[in-house]
Design brief:
The protein folds into two domains: 50 residues, DNA polymerase, domain 1; 287 residues, Aldolase class I (TIM Barrel, Alpha-Beta Barrel), CATH 3.20.20. The longest helix is centred in the middle third of the chain and has 15 residues. It has ten helices and 13 strands. The strands form two sheets. The protein has an eleven-stranded mixed sheet. A two-stranded antiparallel ribbon has the order 5-6. The protein is α/β, with parallel strands linked by helices.
C-alpha cells in the first residue's frame, strides 16, 4: 500500500513549512509587496513566532487576512516520557494528522535532538521496532521542522547550540524532497540558523539518494547504517541490501565523501552471535579502510517479546571496540540512552512504555 499524503486537518493552508519563494507565491493573492514574504519567513523560522497577530512589521490589514485565511501550525507536543538518564521521548501530534516520536538527549553538556522524517518506515529492517509499523506516510517539510521548533520551545533551546540527527522514525532519504527542503530552512541564517556540521542524516543505504545528496547546496553529515559485513547477512537484516548491496553502497559513500570532503560514519548495531564475530571484525576493518569514515558501535537495544535479538555483553562490546582501534579504525561506542522510556535507537514505534521508571506528562 503506497504512503498517503499528509491529510490536512483544516481547510486553511498552513504557512509553516513554506520556503520564501512559496510564501511569495501565497501572498500574490493579496497583491502584497514581495518583501513581506521575507518578513513572514523570519517570523516563522528565525523568531519561531506562530501567532500572526505578533508579526508587527506587517500591515494590520494583511495580518487580519492571514489570520482569517491561513494557519501557522508546527504541530503540538502531545506527550513526554522521561527516562532515568534525563532523555525525553516526545510524542508529537502532526499538523497533517497522526503522530511521530522525537527524542531529546543530554550527555554531559552536549544536547542532541533526534527527529523523525516519516510515520513508520517502509524498509523493514529486522532489528528495528519502527519497521514493524510499516510506512504510514511521509512527513511534510513543516512537520519535520515543527518537531524541532516545539522541542526548542519546551526545553528552552531557541538560543542554544545543539546537534540534530535525522535518526528517528523513518528513512530520511526515502522522503528526500521534504528532508532536503527542511535542511535549507534549518541552515538559512534567516531561518533556524544551524551549521550544517551540526546536522546528521542517517540512512539505511539508499545509494542513489546518497549520491544525489552529495550535490545538494546544503550537505549534512552522513551516517550509514551498515550492521553487517556480508551481503548474505545484510540481506536478512536489512532488505534494502538486496537492491543496493554493500559494494554499491560503498561506491555511493565514496561519491559523497569526495564531494563533501567530510568524514562520514558507519553505524554498526552489535547483535550477539549475529554480527560480532572475529570474522565480522576483520571484514568491517576491510570495508572501512580507504574511506574517511569512523565506526559507531551501537549495542542492540533490546525489546523483549517484540524483537528476537540480544545485545553482546558489555565486555564483548568493549573488546570489539578496542580491536577496531588497534587496527587504526576510528571507532566509538554509543551506549544506550533512554532505553527505559523506549527512546533508544530502533525503539521508536508509538508504543506506550510500561516501565515504572518513566514519567509521563501530557503537554
Amino acid at each position: 500500500m503506497p504512503p498517503t499524503a499528509p491529510a490536512s486537518t483544516a481547510e486553511k493552508p498552513n504557512l509553516f513549512g513554506l520556503d520564501k519563494a512559496q510564501i511569495e507565491g501565497f501572498l500574490e493573492r493579496y497583491d502584497a509587496p514581495r518583501f513581506h514574504a521575507g518578513q513572514i519567513y523570519r517570523w516563522l523560522y528565525e523568531k519561531r513566532e506562530f501567532s500572526v497577530d505578533a508579526w508587527t512589521d506587517l500591515p494590520r490589514p494583511l495580518r487580519e487576512r492571514l489570520s482569517e485565511e491561513a494557519t501557522v501550525d508546527p504541530g503540538q507536543l502531545a506527550q513526554q516520557v522521561q527516562a532515568e538518564d534525563g532523555t525525553i521521548k516526545y510524542r508529537v501530534a502532526l499538523a497533517g494528522g497522526g503522530e511521530v516520536e522525537s527524542v531529546y538527549m543530554l550527555h554531559q553538556e552536549r544536547i542532541t535532538l533526534c527527529i523523525s522524517s516519516q510515520v513508520g518506515c517502509a524498509l523493514n529492517c529486522d532489528f528495528c521496532l519502527t519497521a514493524k509499523m510499516g510506512l504510514v506516510r511521509h512527513l511534510s517539510t513543516g512537520e519535520i521542522l515543527g518537531q524541532i521548533a516545539r522541542i526548542q520551545q519546551d526545553r528552552g533551546l531557541v538560543d542554544v547550540s545543539f546537534n540534530l540527527v535525522f535518526m528517528g522514525m523513518g528513512e530520511p532519504l526515502h522522503n528526500y524532497d521534504a528532508v532536503t527542503a527542511a535542511l535549507r530552512v534549518l541552515t538559512d541564517e534567516r531561518g533556524f540558523g544551524f551549521s550544517r556540521r551540526r546536522i546528521t542524516i542517517s540512512t539505511s543505504g539508499l545509494a542513489p539518494a546518497i549520491e544525489r545528496l552529495a550535490n545538494e547546496p546544503v550537505r549534512p553529515r552522513l551516517a550509514v547504517s551498515l550492521n553487517a559485513t556480508t551481503d548474505e547477512l545484510r540481506d536478512r537484516l536489512m532488505p534494502v541490501n538486496r537492491k543496493y548491496p554493500i559494494a554499491r553502497l560503498l561506491q555511493a559513500c565514496r561519491v559523497f565523501t569526495q564531494g563533501t570532503r567530510d568524514r562520514m560514519s558507519f553505524e554498526y548495531v552489535l547483535l550477539s552471535g549475529v554480527n560480532d564475530s572475529p570474522e565480522d571484525l576483520r571484514r568491517l576493518v576491510k570495508i572501512v579502510t580507504g574511506l574517511p569514515a569512523k565506526v559507531n558501535l551501537i549495542p542492540f537495544n533490546e525489546v523483549p517479546g517484540r524483537l528476537p535479538y540480544r545485545a553482546p555483553t558489555r565486555e564483548r562490546v568493549i573488546e570489539f571496540h578496542q580491536a577496531l582501534r588497534e587496527r587504526d579504525v576510528p571507532a566509538s561506542i554509543r551506549w544506550s540512552r533512554g532505553a527505559d522510556a523506549r527512546a533508544a535507537c530502533g525503539q521508536l514505534a508509538l508504543e506506550n512504555s510500561s516501565s515504572s521508571s518513566t514519567r509521563d506528562r501530557q503537554g
